[in-house]
Amino acid sequence: MLDETARHTLDLEAGWWRRAGTKEAAIRDRFAESPSTYYRRLGRLLDDPAAMEHAPVLVRRLRRQRALRIGRRSDRRLAG
Q1: Which long-range contacts (CB under 8 A, 24 or more apart) does 45-48 make?
Q2: How far is Cα 57 from Cα 4, in angstroms, rounded to an integer?
Q3: Do 13 and 62 form a contact (C-beta atoms < 8 A)?
Q4: Residue-wise pLDDT tens digits, 46-75
Q5: Residues 6+ positions from 68 with CB-CB distance below 8 Å
Q6: What's CA 11's distance to the chain center, in Å?
Q7: Within 13 A of 75's CA, how many CA atoms are on the CB side?
Q8: Which of 6, 40, 68, 78 has CB 3.0 to 4.6 Å from 2, enough for a Cys bridge?
């Protein structure tokens, strides 16, 4: 079962673009924390089976995006 903060995190990821301003502003406004703290929580949340039950399409999309970012970082390290 997801706690309230986890549900709000997934809700923000699902629709932050509908809000006025930047995603960073939405993070600070809703959670009163830095974006880096938010993204650490989001990363842990993506590996939580309860998050997959709560929002499977969103979690799969975010996992794919994370895998692409990790792959690009690995490619840059190999090329550099």
Answers
A1: 45/6, 45/9, 45/10, 48/2, 48/6
A2: 19
A3: yes
A4: 999 999 999 999 999 999 999 999 888 776
A5: none
A6: 10
A7: 6
A8: 6
